[in-house]
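Action item from last meeting closed. Structure (675 res):
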């Protein structure tokens, strides 16, 4: 009898619970950001976002469409839980040493009136001072599920300017387009960056993409909603977006960095905070470093990957590069085209690649020995031509081969529009493969530089052997592109778009801009700009992409590349405007020295940068690398002035940038100050 009464009460309560609109507020720790989550009487979950009480996102829809069930309507709210978290963790390498992970969390657990009773969905929100995120978690009993799409619909309160690259851009290697959100009528890749009329910046992306298709965004033009974006998950060739199991999976976090200025945008740790803590117990073998490569000479057409009279990766050539690296303190050297598989159509027939069989003119024993004697680390190259099955079948032997020859870093590559002739790189298929490679590499103590990769999502927190990735139109395009080379503006956009996703292997450092075999294109840059890029761009494996003979011509400028670190304790954007210019300052992780780099687009510019925001008390010895009034990126790019000065925090840098220019300064803390 009592049991029945309880049951009736429970049913009544559930009906009341389901029948009225329920609203939950979640604030950031500093209370400036507010997420409001609503469950409507029809069983829809919605959310909106405000900053300083001003709306950013109006009522926006959540939910998913599965092949088996619809989780957009008929949701029955079962439980709401709240937690809060505050800790600080240390990155083994990074743009900063310390990361504060402080958030408030709200999780809503749902059943679904129209779904299998054992299935439940959690929508979990986290609200940080620098942004918000949510994800879907699938609770249940191991039944299969297929995601047709997430139904997230983001309704913006204003019409921001938006930077994006189109969905179909191969390997994300495109120029970023700036448009008002209301003019987006296509599908674009994630991340996207927005500048609101009031100066707020929002970067939408995803964190912890582990076993899921990568996210994209589109506008539903038929719905006439001009400032609305929807989610489009990259599909398999079957059309299904994600295969999974109830009880075994969750979506990546859907992230929104929300920043008052460009410094907050570029230095946000939202993505890494939303990934799992480091799974590698001993990270002492993970070593950020600069590296050179038998590489640019191949892209310029002087050498080949394949065998023949101009083969690049020969024992002799490797020794020449090793000697140069050793003389200049460059710790890494990449060899491309060293293994069987490159002859013929290496991209179309990547299944012929043999990852532990060197060409006869590449004597790995001798090279490894010479590299070790000279303190240089060989970086292996595994170009798969997109044939992941072939690569995976050789992975154990390949990493054993690397270990045998003391190779602790490998650049992977997937040049082919499809993986294994069928799936997209950023589909769940590609995501799974690339994750497997990183995990196996971690076991074998190998660092990964992933080219033609899925856009990074902060996974380097969990696997810090995942050092860097491409997913960018890098400097290699300026060796052979048919469109004249990337405009100078491109590099002023990257710090606020691509680089927000994670370290970027852009491969800067061109010191010779001539390109006789491809005269239609070139690097749009002065020499000073090439130096500044080592501060503006961030990659813990950072390439010095040109050839020894090019660096030999400008050894005075090369000194900056010898000295500039790749691992930082602090990083700041001191000034900038997306697409126009950027001034970045970083503090060396292993000294008190600071480095500042400024670059611009094709407009000359005067900047005045006070040092009071970054420097400590005391004197710094500054070495400034700047262009002269005669420097011209097209006709006189190498003219460079190197000045010495004693500076303190009361000084201001006066920076004159010529078109497509740069400015770099090293500020060495005077050691006598410490006495
Ligand atoms: C494209 C990569 O981005 C480049 O760095 C590499 O040299 C070629 N693929 C060959 O793997």
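Sequence:
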């Amino acid at each position: 009898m009592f049991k029945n009464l309880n049951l009736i009460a429970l049913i009544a309560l559930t009906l009341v619970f389901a029948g009225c609109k329920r609203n939950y507020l979640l604030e950031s720790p500093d209370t400036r950001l507010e997420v409001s989550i609503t469950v409507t009487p029809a069983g829809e979950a919605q959310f909106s976002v405000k900053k300083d009480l001003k709306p950013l996102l109006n009522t926006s829809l959540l939910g998913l469409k599965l092949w088996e069930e619809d989780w957009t309507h008929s949701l029955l709210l079962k439980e709401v839980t709240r937690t809060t978290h505050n800790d600080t963790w240390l990155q083994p390498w990074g743009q900063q040493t310390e990361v504060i992970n402080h958030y408030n969390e709200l999780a809503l657990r749902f059943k679904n009136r129209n779904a299998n009773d054992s299935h439940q969905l959690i929508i979990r929100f986290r609200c940080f001072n620098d942004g918000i995120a949510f994800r879907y978690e699938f609770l249940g009993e191991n039944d299969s599920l297929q995601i047709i799409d997430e139904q997230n619909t983001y309704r913006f309160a204003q019409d921001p300017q938006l930077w994006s690259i189109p969905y179909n851009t191969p390997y994300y290697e495109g120029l970023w387009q700036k448009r008002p959100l209301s003019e987006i009528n296509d599908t674009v890749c994630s991340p996207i960056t927005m500048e609101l009329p009031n100066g707020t910046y929002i970067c939408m992306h995803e964190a912890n993409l582990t076993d899921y298709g990568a996210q994209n965004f589109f506008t539903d033009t038929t719905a006439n909603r001009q400032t609305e974006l929807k989610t489009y998950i990259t599909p398999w060739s079957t059309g299904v977006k994600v295969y999974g199991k109830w009880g075994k999976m969750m979506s990546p976090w859907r992230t929104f960095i929300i920043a008052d200025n460009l410094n907050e945008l570029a230095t946000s740790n939202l993505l890494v905070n939303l990934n799992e803590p480091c799974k590698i117990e001993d990270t002492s073998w993970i070593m950020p470093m600069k590296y050179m490569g038998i590489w640019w000479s191949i892209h310029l057409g002087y050498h080949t990957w394949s065998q023949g009279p101009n083969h690049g990766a020969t024992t002799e050539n490797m020794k020449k590069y090793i000697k140069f690296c050793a003389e200049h303190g460059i710790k890494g050297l990449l060899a491309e085209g060293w293994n069987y598989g490159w002859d013929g159509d290496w991209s179309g027939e990547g299944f012929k690649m043999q990852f532990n069989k060197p060409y006869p003119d590449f004597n790995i024993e001798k090279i490894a020995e010479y590299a070790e004697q000279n303190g240089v680390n060989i970086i292996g190259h595994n170009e798969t031509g997109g044939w992941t099955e072939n690569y995976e079948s050789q992975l154990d032997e390949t990493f054993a081969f690397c270990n045998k020859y003391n190779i602790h870093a490998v650049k992977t590559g997937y040049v082919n529009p499809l993986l294994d002739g069928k799936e997209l790189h950023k589909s769940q298929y590609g995501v799974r493969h690339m994750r497997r490679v990183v995990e196996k590499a971690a076991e074998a103590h190998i660092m990964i530089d992933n080219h033609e990769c899925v856009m990074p999502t902060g996974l380097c927190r969990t696997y810090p052997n995942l050092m860097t990735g491409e997913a960018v139109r890098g400097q290699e395009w300026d060796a052979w592109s048919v469109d004249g080379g990337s405009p100078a503006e491109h590099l002023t956009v990257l710090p606020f778009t691509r680089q927000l996703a994670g370290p970027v292997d852009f491969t800067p450092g061109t010191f010779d801009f001539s390109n006789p075999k491809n005269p239609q294109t070139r690097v749009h840059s002065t020499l000073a700009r090439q130096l500044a890029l080592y501060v503006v761009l961030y990659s813990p494996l950072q390439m010095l992409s040109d050839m020894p003979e090019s660096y030999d011509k400008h050894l005075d400028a090369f000194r900056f590349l010898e000295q500039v670190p790749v691992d930082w304790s602090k990083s700041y954007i001191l000034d900038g405007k997306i697409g126009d210019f950027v001034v970045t300052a970083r503090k060396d992780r292993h000294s008190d020295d600071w480095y500042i780099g400024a670059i611009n687009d094709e407009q000359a510019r005067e900047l005045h940068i006070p040092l009071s925001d970054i420097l400590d008390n005391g004197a710094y010895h500054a070495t400034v690398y700047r262009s002269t009034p005669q420097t011209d990126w097209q006709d006189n790019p190498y003219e460079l002035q190197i000045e010495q000065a004693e500076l303190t925090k009361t000084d201001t840098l006066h920076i004159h940038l010529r078109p497509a220019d740069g400015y770099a300064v090293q500020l060495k803390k005077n050691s006598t100050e410490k006495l």
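Note appended to the action item: Residues 9-16 have pLDDT under 50 and may be disordered.
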